[in-house]
Structure formats: C-alpha cells, structure tokens
Amino acid sequence: MAHIAQKGDRFYVVVYGGIDPATGKAKRDWHDGYATRKEAERAAAEITKRQHDGEYRSPDRITLAEYLTDRWLPLKKSQLSRSTFDSYRNNVRLHVAPRIGAIQLRQLQPEDLDTLYAELLVDGKLNGAGGGLAPKTVRNIHGMLRKALADAHRKGTVHRNVADLADPPTVRHAGAKEQQVWSTDELRSFLDAIEDTAWFAPVYLAANTGMRRGELLGLTWRKVDLDEARLVVDQQLLSVGYGAEVGVPKTSTSRRTIDLDPRTVAVLRTWRRLQLEQLMANGTRNDGDFVFTHPETGEAVHPDRFSKMWDQLVAEHGPRRIRLHDLRHTHASILLKANVPVKVVSERLGHSSPAFTMTVYQHVLPGMQADAAAAFGDAVFGMSTQLP
Q1: 153 neighbors 32 (Cβ within 8 angstroms)
Q2: Are residues 152 and 202 both part of a single domain?
Q3: Which CATH number fits the domain that encloses residue 246?
Q4: Which residue has the higher pLDDT, 156 or 335?
Q5: pTM > 0.70
Q6: 114-142 pLDDT per residue, tens
Q7: Which of 108, 235, 259, 321 has its CA 20 to 30 A from that of 9?
Q8: Phi then psi for 27, rounded to 5 degrees?
Q9: Which residues contact 315 (CB under 8 A, 6 or more apart)?
C-alpha cells in the first residue's frame, strides 16, 4: 500500500514493496516530492489502483518503452484525436522504443534524447530508401516525449523532465527542406497541362484557395455555395492508420469562409456535373456528400492517395518538383506579391494571426518592402523629383 511522508516542505508517496530477501529489510519505493499533500494523495490513490490492477512497477525498474506504451498512451487515448493518438503510437513503436526504449525511465538523460534526435535526422526513415526524418518530424517526436515526461514528473515517477534539457533540431536546421513555390507562369502552365486529368478539379481548387489537404478532401457540397461564390471550411479528412476519418479543423481559426473567383466557380460546376455522371455510371452513391470522391466507390479520397497522385502529376507535368503543401505556399506567395493585405491572406489560409503569416512568408517581404519604399517616395516627392 502507499502512504504519504513529509520531508521539509515536500510530500512523498512511499510504496511498501515487501521484504528484501538479501537484506531482510523492508523495501520501499519513494515517489518524488509533491508541493502539497493533496497532490501526493492523488498520486497515492493512482498508485494504489495500479497495485490492485496488477500494473504497478517500481519507478526504479520501469523502462521508457514500458511507461510510454503501457501507462501513458492508454491514458491519453481518450484525450487525443484519433489521428494524433495514432501518430504518437507510431512514433513510439517505430522510432523511440527500438532506439532508447530499453533505458530505465529514471535513468533517462538529456543526452539520450539528443542522441535519438541526431540519429533520426540521419537514418530515421523506415521506407527502405534510407535517409533521415525531417527536422519538423523529429521536433514532433520531441514534443510528444516532453509531454509524456512532464506527466511522469508531475506524478512523481521521475525526478525531472529531461526533455526540457534536451536540444531538438530547429525547423531551420541545415538539413531542412526550404519552402518551394511556383511562379504564376509555372502554376498556370501546370494547371493547363493537367486539365484533362481526373485530378484537375481538386488541384485547381487547392491552388486557388490555399486549402490544406485534409480541408480540401473533407469539403462537402453543402458547404459550397456556387451562387454566392464561397465555401465554408469546418472539417477535415484525416489519415488514421490505413483509413481516413472526418475530424475537426486543425485550429479554431481554421474554421473560415473562403471566397471564390468566377473561374473556380466554373471549374466546380463542371466537376459537380462530371462527378454525378461518374457515380451514376458506376452505380455508386456519394453518401458523405464529399466534393471529391473515388468514382468507383463514391467514398472520399484518402489523403495519402491524393498526395501520391500529386507526386505523379508533378513528375509528369510540373515545371519543377514541389510538395503538395507547397501549393498552399504558392497561393499565399502569389497573393502577397500582388499586394493583397497580410490580414486578408492570413484569414484566407486560416492562420492564427497575421503575425504568423508574416513569419512563414518572410521570404516574400523583402521585395514588398522595396515596393513600399518606392511607393512612399513617389507619393511624397513625385516621380520627377531630382535626387539630392
């Protein structure tokens, strides 16, 4: 059983572990100090429950993999979205457990995490092609570990959160892929080249709205008003394991209304007619009312399939290779270069704030700054004013 002990101004949970046969003395596990007795009592109650359920392990013996897999992830399952939980579980299974999972939780050091991150950047890919994970992916793994170890620290399982002292790679890490965008001429040439393909309509809408992949594939016809030339983003299609599920938007600001230009409206009208013809010809129904569906099944297009088709289209028709997400960057960059206010671009993309938009697209700003300086000079001094 667990009881509370006080040392100085800290409270500890002490768990009796029977008699040590080697010494004949009682074994006791001390769980790290808590600031208040109430916190310690909550921890003691949880430990007692694990003892009754047969799940208790001494904090000195549990490994990182055991903690993450058997304790932390099961508790988080009801608190996380399906896609986030699936991502955490895969990261633990594929990247964390095989490399540092055998280390005892209380023996884990910041250097162990630093080594993990360095290895993942070099050879973290598991698709057979070799190579390292993107710095952003490694940072996501660090974020997961930091949350897990913070919970362990709060409950007294570890003395400190070593992830706070680790050094994950920055997004601007030397190996990070730089943002790639197409020019207006390149985008127009690509759209012309794929006009007769089955994927023209979703690619066209993505290019002309800057919608995220999940938002595009989760869009339903009842959220599209072609007469008023606008659509509403209020859900997204998420890749969960080998399937896809509808989920809430990425952030609260991702819920938004996007206005459409006449060309995009015309493309959607043509696509809607073609979609109905395809469904009727194949004897299928669009029960989910999705704007973009698989013609043979009537089901929504899986996000991973759309990304794969994008890569094929770019390889065959693209002026140069860019990622699917770079199509969103292209949309934003073209708007900013056309002097559309940053606030409007931010709202269109569903960003948290215009400041975030400026940070992401700061590569576009130098040219805009030069234009602004020239415009101010012309407004105040006139085009014909002689230089001093």
Answers
A1: yes
A2: no
A3: 1.10.443.10
A4: 335
A5: no
A6: 999 999 998 898 866 678 898 989 999 99
A7: 108
A8: -95, 135
A9: 321
Q: What is the DSSP letter of 168?
A: P
The Cα–Cα gap between 363 and 349 comes to 17
Average pLDDT of the chain, as a whole number: 86
Q: Looking at the 3D structure of the chain, how many domains does it have? A: 3
Q: Which of 117, 146, 177 is the last residue of a domain?
A: 177
Return the exposure string of 67-93: e unless at least 16 CB atoms fall within 10 Å of the residue's CB, then b: bbbebbbeebeeeeeebebbbbbebbe
Question: Per-residue pLDDT averaged across 252-262, rounded?
Answer: 94
The β-bridge partners of 233 are 256
Q: Is residue 357 part of a domain?
A: no
Q: Is the pLDDT of residue 29 over 80?
A: no
Q: Is residue 348 part of a domain?
A: no
| H helices, E strands: number in the chain | 16, 8
Please, which residues have CB within 8 angstroms of residue 140's CB and are 6 or more apart in sequence?
87, 91
Q: How far is CA 297 from the centre of its chain?
A: 29
In the chain, at which residue ranges do the beta strands (DSSP E only) sit? 2-7, 10-19, 26-34, 224-225, 230-233, 236-240, 243-247, 256-259
Q: How far is the C-alpha of 202 from the C-alpha of 17, rounded, in Å?
A: 62
Q: Which residue has the higher pLDDT, 153 or 129?
A: 153
Domain boundary pick from 177, 199, 216: 177
Q: Which residues constitute the domain of residue 28?
A: 1-56
120 and 140 part of one domain: yes
* 5 in a structural domain: yes
